[in-house]
Structures are given as C-alpha cells and as structure tokens.
UniProtKB/TrEMBL annotation:
It comes from the Eukaryota. Gene3D superfamilies: 2.160.20.70. It comes from Dioscorea zingiberensis. Residues 299-438 form the C-CAP/cofactor C-like domain. This is TBCC domain-containing protein 1. SUPFAM superfamilies: C-terminal domain of adenylylcyclase associated protein. Keywords: Cytoplasm, Cytoskeleton.
Length: 568
C-alpha cells in the first residue's frame, strides 16, 4: 500500500489587511507637541480629570477661552494662546477661530503631551562621526553629532525612524493609554463597576482627534460609521450611550490588529519586495511626476526620491538640484522635504502640513500652508513660506522669510537664526492662500515665541538644570540684506486673477531699503547709457559686465538653476 506523500509547502503571502484598518492620526504627534512643562500631566487622569471638571464649570457651553485656560493651568496668557492655536492646527476639521477650544479636544491634546518621540537608531559609526563633527550640545542627542550635510553623506538617513516605525510607536502609545483616554471622554451614570461610565456618540467622535479608520487602508471613514455602536446614529435620534469598557475593548482589538498588520508588512519587507508597503522617510520608492529637474553641472546627482504615502508626499535626497512641484504633482494634504542639500526646492501648492528636516545649503519655497510648518535639524537653509503657524527646532544659520498669521515658535538648540518678511509670489499664491485660510493682512513674522532648549518629548536624557534654559531667539534680517526672491513662471498660465506682487505688505523699513536699491540700480543703468565712449569701448564694457556676472553665477551656484530651467 502506497503512502500519500504530502505536497510540498509553499510560502504563504501576508494576510490581507482588515476591511477597516485603524490608523493613528499623525498630525497631533508630529505638529502638536509643545515643550511646556505645565502642559505635561504625567499622572494622567488623576490630574487631568479635575482639570476637565474645572474647565467645564468655567465654560458651561464646553468651549474654553485663552483666559480660562491660563487660569485653570496657571500658565502665562501667551502660552494659553499658543496651546489653543496649536490644538486648532492639529484638529481634523477647521474650528471657528473665535469660539475657543472644545473642552474634550483640549483634554486629549493635553493628555498626549506625555508622548515621547521615537528615538533614532544608533549610528553605525558614531565614534568616527564625532571626530569630524564633535557634539557641543547636550540638547540634540544623537543628531547633534551630525551636521545636516554629514547626515546625508554618512547614509544615516537609514537610521532615522521610518513612517511605519513611527506609526507603530504611536499605536503602541495609544494602546497603552486608551483606557485613560476613553475614561476622560466618558460620562458617569448610576451603577457599579465598569458600567458606571458610558460614552455617547458625540463624545466618541472626539477620538477622531487621535485615530481614524480606512477601508483597506484608505482614510476618511467617520468613527461613528466604523463602529457597530453608533453606525446608525442620527442627530434627531441619537444612539444610546455605550459602556466605556465595551468601547475600550473594541478600540483595543483594532489597535492590536493594526499593530499585527504593520508587523506582517515589516516581515514581508525583510523577506523580499511587496506591492503594498508603506513609503518610509528613508526608503521611499521612486515615483517621478510632473516637471522637476535634478541636473547639476557635473551631470550627476545623488539618489533622489519624490514619493507618496497615505496622504503624504515626499521630496527626499536631492543634491545640487532644482525641484519644482505644483498642485497636480502632490498627493494628499501633507508634504515632507527630507535630506536635501545645495538645492532649490519649489513647492507651489496649497497644503495643510509641511515638514523640512535635515536639509542644508538649500532654498525651499513652501507655497501656502493652512495648518502648520515644522523646520527641524537644518543648516544654512532659507525657507520662504506663507503659513498660519511655523515651528523652528534645532536649526543653525538659517533665514526664514515668513508670511505667518501666528507667532513663529522657536524651540531647541538653535544658533544664528534670522527672520524676515515674506519676499516672493507666484501666479496662484493668493488663490492657494484663500483655499487654506492664510490671511495676507496679518503677518507676525517678527514676533517669535521662544521656549526651552530641551524638548521633553524627545526621550533623551539631559544634564541637570538644562531643562530651564531658554532657546536662542532669532534676529531680524538687516533691511539692507533683504531682497525679493523671483519664482519663474514655468508654465505661463496667468489670468486676470493671478498674483502679480507680494500679497504681504512690507514693513516700511524694508520697503525704504528696496526703494533705495532700485534707485541706485536705475542711476547705474542711466550712467551706463549716458557714458560717452567709443562704440568698441562700449562693447568691451558690456563684455566685462557679462564676464563678471557669469563669474558670480558660477561662484554662487545660481548657474545650475539656469541650466535646470533651460532643461525644463
């Protein structure tokens, strides 16, 4: 009798993602953490619970003003204003700017101030790196050992946490703290034990500040439609409240499933390529889109990446390049410019969020940003942006040309920063600003708010007493050094509504400096026209001017932009 031989086993593909996949909202963790000690409640609900009750008593309508928040937390009014503005910048929807902050959104915002960012992995040759760029700062931790330029040369980008790693870290935080978070949203009812706290549909929706659901990875499903508790809830006939413990169990199950799904994808990535992997900060896949140029005089460039990942776009790793991205080139509402060096980056689009990280010797134009901009670990970078809110952290010798509706926030170990008024425009700028709500009549570019040098969210240890040190502020750019930045009109698409000048009014001192420069230029041009010399001498003079101009183009690196523009 012959025995049946078992069929050889074949590798199994990773399990498909659940129909509804829970994701953390990255924005509160990336743009919503403030290094203010009085906003960090390490004992969770023991202190935040009474704070919530105090705020609700002070504001029966559930909306908190800056004055009420300052009194409740015993913080200065400018810190209270910053807290409410930062909360508004990371909410899923745009709140009424005159209505104050919702108490429950505010409590969740205060709760996540205990979050610690994921640490970069240890550098593979930290001793060698320290020899060439010794760390003189206790505040930057690992990254202070690297200038931004060395960051890319050493290939340490691969040691910066990936998007999927950060998402898993955020999910783990939510998994650990979800019971407390739900307890802060719940309402007490008569009863004993777990049944004494319940969650209404309205309170449950506040969880949308921290989590979201997507059908097979696509975002955008309202929380009440994702849960079996409130799926058929109607404003006229709201669903009955649900025990908080039941909601916690349901959310925890989805967080566990999301963590397992991420782990399976990470394992699949280690075992070989797969078609459904997240784009990471370090290893985003190449996805070339509309016109861009990454040519250089030598005809070579570093590895470059322009990639997309779940409502985010990436511009990464460009060196000696000019890159142009318009609205049609960008997927989602958020963009990150990472590890670009000696380049010019034009992002001419309306966005909600933008991050610039680890760049050096680069000019970056960020069109119109409706929620928040974060500039971090940059060196000798010029950033030009029209935005509601900007945070600058751990930067050196950078200049920021700003059109901002809120005070610029400066935190961390910064050196020789300068701020100046906004200095450019492009054809669609005013249209983009109107789309995302940046107001050109309000520009607080010269009112930086400076916080501490130590960020309590970075998981690093710091010397005793350092936490009380204040970050170095930014100085105003000398008006005589202020110049307009010209953005070429590559596509020639102008209309009567096109922006034809800088929409942010210049302060008088900068305007006077510009008038003086224009007057000198006109005088020089007129003197050259009026000079009475022989025709061959005029040609020699013109030739000499052209030679000096060409020398300046090469010395400044601007010749590369001309080559790039010619290529486009």
């Amino acid at each position: 009798m012959l025995e049946e031989k078992p069929e050889p086993s074949t590798p199994t593909a990773p399990a498909p993602p659940p129909a509804l996949l829970l994701r953390p909202r990255r924005e509160p963790f990336e743009y919503g953490l403030l290094p203010i000690s009085k906003l960090i409640f390490s004992d969770g609900i023991l202190t935040l619970g009474p704070v919530k009750e105090k705020l609700l008593q002070a504001s029966p309508d559930g909306r908190v003003s800056e004055t009420q928040l300052a009194e409740a937390l015993q913080i200065p009014p400018d810190y209270a204003c910053l807290t409410i503005d930062t909360l508004a910048s990371v909410l899923p929807a745009d709140p009424d700017p005159n209505a104050g902050a919702d108490v429950h959104d505010l409590i969740l915002f205060l709760y996540i101030q205990t979050y610690k960012r994921l640490l970069p992995r240890t550098h593979k040759d930290s001793a060698a790196v320290a020899d060439v760029w010794p760390s003189t700062s206790a505040f930057d931790g690992y990254l202070s050992a690297l200038s931004p330029l060395q960051l890319v040369r050493s290939n340490s980008r691969r040691f910066i946490p990936s998007q999927s790693d950060e998402e898993a870290h955020q999910l783990s935080y939510l998994q650990k703290h979800m019971a407390n978070i739900i307890a802060l949203l719940a309402e007490p009812v008569e009863g004993e034990g777990d049944e004494s706290l319940v969650l209404t549909s309205e309170r449950f929706e506040h969880l949308g500040f921290l989590i979201q659901f997507g059908e097979k990875g696509c975002e955008g499903i309202p929380l009440s439609q994702a849960t079996p508790f409130f799926a058929n809830s109607d404003p006229d006939m709201p669903a009955a409240p649900v025990p908080a413990a039941q909601v916690h169990d349901w959310v925890s199950q989805h967080i566990t499933a999301a963590l397992e799904h991420n782990a399976e994808k990470a394992m699949a990535k280690e075992n070989g390529p797969t078609a459904d992997l997240d784009v990471t900060m370090a290893d985003a896949f190449l996805n070339q889109t509309r016109p861009q140029s990454n040519s250089s005089l030598s005809g070579t460039s570093m590895h470059t990446t322009c990639a997309y990942s779940r409502s985010q776009s990436f511009v990464e790793g460009f060196s000696k390049a000019s890159v142009v991205k318009q609205t049609c080139d960008i997927k989602g509402h958020s963009l990150k410019v990472l590890n670009c060096h000696d380049s010019v980056i034009y992002i001419l689009a309306p966005l909600r969020y933008a991050t610039v990280y680890g760049c050096s010797d680069t000019t970056i134009v960020l069109g119109a940003i409706g929620k928040a901009v974060r500039i971090e670990h940059c060196e000798r970078v010029q950033v030009i942006t029209a935005a509601k809110h900007i945070c600058i952290s751990n930067c050196r010798e950078c200049i920021f040309f700003l059109g901002v509706n809120q005070q610029p926030l400066i935190v961390g170990d910064n050196h020789k920063l300068q701020v100046a008024p906004y200095n450019t425009f492009y054809a669609q700028l005013e249209e983009h600003m109107a789309q995302i709500g940046v107001v050109p009549t309000v520009n607080r570019w010269d009112e930086p708010l400076v916080l501490g040098m130590v960020d309590p969210h970075d998981s690093l240890s710091h010397p005793a007493g350092v936490s009380d040190a204040q970050a170095e502020s930014a100085t105003r750019l000398d008006p005589d050094l202020f110049t307009n930045f010209l953005i070429p009109n590559w596509y020639g698409s102008e209309s009567p509504q096109s922006t034809k000048y800088n929409p942010f009014p210049l302060p008088e001192i900068y305007l006077s400096s510009q008038r003086k420069k224009y007057s000198i230029l006109n005088d020089v041009q007129q003197a050259l026209r009026d000079i009475e010399i022989e025709e061959n001498k005029k040609r020699e003079l013109a030739c000499a001017l052209h030679v000096h101009f060409k020398d300046w183009l090469y010395a400044s690196g601007n010749i590369r932009q001309l080559y790039c523009l010619q290529g486009d």
